[in-house]
Amino acid sequence: MPDHITPYDTALHRDESAVSGMWLFLASEILLFGGLFLIVLVYSHTHAAGWNAGVRHTSLMIGSINTVVLLSSSAVFTLAVEAARTGDRRRIIHAGLGAAGLGMVFLMLKSWEWHLEFEEHLFPGTNFSISGPNDGGAQLFYSFYFISTALHGLHMLVGIGLILWICDRTRRQTGREISTIPVDIVGLYWSFVDLVWIVLFPVLYLIGRN
Amino acid sequence: MVRVLYCWILLMMLLAGELTMARLGFGSAVCACAVLMGLVIIFGFMRIAQAPPLAAIFALGGLFWLVILLSLGSLDSFTRTNFAVGSAMSSRPDHAPALPDESR
Amino acid sequence: MALTADRERSYLWQDGTVRSWLLTTDHKRIALLYMASITVFFILGGIGAALIRMQLVMPTGAILSDETYGRMFTMHGIVMVWLFLVPSIPVTLGNFLVPLMLGARDLAFPRLNLISWYLFVMAGLLVVYGLFRGGLETGWTFYTPLSTDYTQGRVLPVVAGVFLSGFSSIATGLNFIISIHQLRASGMTWYRLPLMLWALYATSVIFVLATPVLSITLVLLAFEHFFRVGVFDPTLGGDPLLFQHLFWFYSHPAVYIMILPGMGVVSEVVSTFCHKQVFGYRFVAWSSISIAAIGFLVWGHHMFVAGTSLYAAVVFSMLSFLVSVPSAIKVFNWLGTMHGGAIRLDAPMLYAMGFIGLFTVGGLTGLFLASLASDVHLTQTYFVVAHFHYIMVGGMVSAYFAGLHYWWPKITGRMYPEMWGRTAAALLFFGFNLTFFPQFLLGYEGMPRRYATYPAQFQVLNVLSSAGASILALAYILPLIYFAWSLLRGARATDNPWQATGLEWRTSSPPPTENFVHPPVVTHDAYDYAALDQANIAARQEVPHA
């Protein structure tokens, strides 16, 4: 039994296990974000007025651009996954760098948005700028806004790191056959980060705006 | 390559639809668009149909437990009749420390 | 001569450097690393318990200030739950046994397994740091707004530690699930798996799907505490009960993390020491899965008096009754297995029988707490304390010791001293009941939990309880001593000292690094003693020809 595939019988067996394991990890991640969405579900109904006041203060323009950027980034990385299947080393690296670059653009826009919100005193606390009878609900919304975008941003940072790692190992592994599984798995993770954003985007920017 | 491009175009169209629906104020249509976008990603980018069957089982399992968390977790808040969620029963008492105690 | 050859090939001795232990990806060595770590934490949590019981000898409190007392039971709870009970059987015996029972060389992701141990150690260090730098007074449940707005204690390091230990749990659960799906030996069908693996599979499902909810809850708590923003803050209209819902969404299933692996061990031990197929194998297997699944639907019963909706309370109460069905199936099936069996009362079996009795008491008293009306009277009293200690200590710790004694020959290649093992098992059962049965009475009479002092009328029962705790402490210290002794002086163990059927008994004791010299092929159901006996007879007949 060759050592590099221990404890598996074949490389295919190992790859299947790795992909299944990644999906199981993503199932676990669903529940991680699930806890946040329970908060959305409860507060957006029991404090609808204040919550919607919070939604109206988010920057729809930046949010929409970011959605486009992130969806494109995921699409570009899927090209890298396909390139790994055909064994095209250069395209893996190009697509990977493209996806990571778009991810950085997302994060930069996001931090600009955060900056604007800090300027407007939308960070919950004593200086919170939305006042009136519904300010409690609006503060709850902004607590959720900052926690969820921070957590999502953290996942993006991890994802960008993983993509750069893929590019680096692809560059250094010339001469050997490309192992597609790491590319696949990072692709799954990167698309999952997209999925989370697709749920966050309507919750943070759209539902309750009108 | 072409498949990815199609998926991307589909996603952009759905996003445009989502934004329109939000403007018109149809909350449920916004949710529908978001769900469709998720499906495009799961089937188009993550290729769950080509993954080992275990992958689909795990994904469905995660979603199922999410439904349990959201439904049973919100059951209490939505049916509470004794005190409404966050009714102004409580205000911060005077003895509460206003700031974190940094001296420790 | 054969013995020395085996000894050098075994996982214990193949490479003895410290570095090879700390960087090992061998599941058996990682199991031992875990075993050493959780023993340290068990002792730490035990010291907390000892101080609590000393304090409660006197109605006015004997040794601790009220504040220190609060910090002490918090330390006891946090250390025991997250650093001992949750990891206990899965990461030690589970880590050691899952590949052996499957007939595999290692777990699916060996490096992840090692990472999970490092995460666990870091988690433990953070928690211990927080506790020694002042501790906290919130109890192990961290309820808001006490933990966010009012606490004077060290919330952040402790919460960060528990958060990290969660990732260690998730990694272990993920490893077990993928291993059981992917690494079964040839011929090892699902219904041939030992019941221990069904139990660990069910446990892993909870690890993977419930733990992330705890993680996010702790993130929210830390965020609220650190940045002073409202998430559960009632002054902003936030709902502290939402914290409790999220917390118990993890922590109730975690109760089943703390019992299901024990049930797996008991199934193995009962079958072996009765030399009999487990009665109703498929029912026992599926009852593990259904306990894990139903366990996710019952958490609201921790909050009946917290001000939750009556409708939710009724739903949660009914669902809570449901979970007793698969638990009862297990108990009846163990008894069915013992009925008519050739029972040998070795130490593991004594512990397992203790488990069955204590778990039954703990489970039945749980029904009192699942009923809305009686829960209002009993909740927040010592009745609850006694109830969950019967499950977690009477149940899980008994099962942990049962498993340790049962697999000790396989893990170390040495036998423990049988007479001392039986003594410790008897002491555990006796000491445990003396400690916790009086607490049922105390709770029924209305003594509330978590107070440093109590009315004088409760003193007799409290003194009895403290006396029991000292016997219990002896029952824990004894194995520590004779296990250490047996490492050096114990009799050499044979490959299958108990005449058990599992694949782990088909390899040498201790196993070689690669587990099996030849990849095993499974041709019989689990617990097929007839086949084992026939093979033994055949082997004996062959000896003269050899």
From TrEMBL, chain C:
It is found in: Membrane. This is Cytochrome c oxidase subunit I. SUPFAM superfamilies: Cytochrome c oxidase subunit I-like. It is a multi-pass membrane protein. The chain crosses the membrane at residues 31-52, 72-102, 114-135, 155-178, 198-227, 247-271, 283-304, 310-329, 350-370, 382-408, 420-441, 461-485. The keyword Iron applies. It comes from the Bacteria. InterPro entries: Cyt_c_oxase-like_su1_dom, Cyt_c_oxase-like_su1_sf, Cyt_C_Oxase_1, Cyt_c_Oxase_su1_BS. The keyword Nucleus does not apply. It holds the Pfam family COX1.
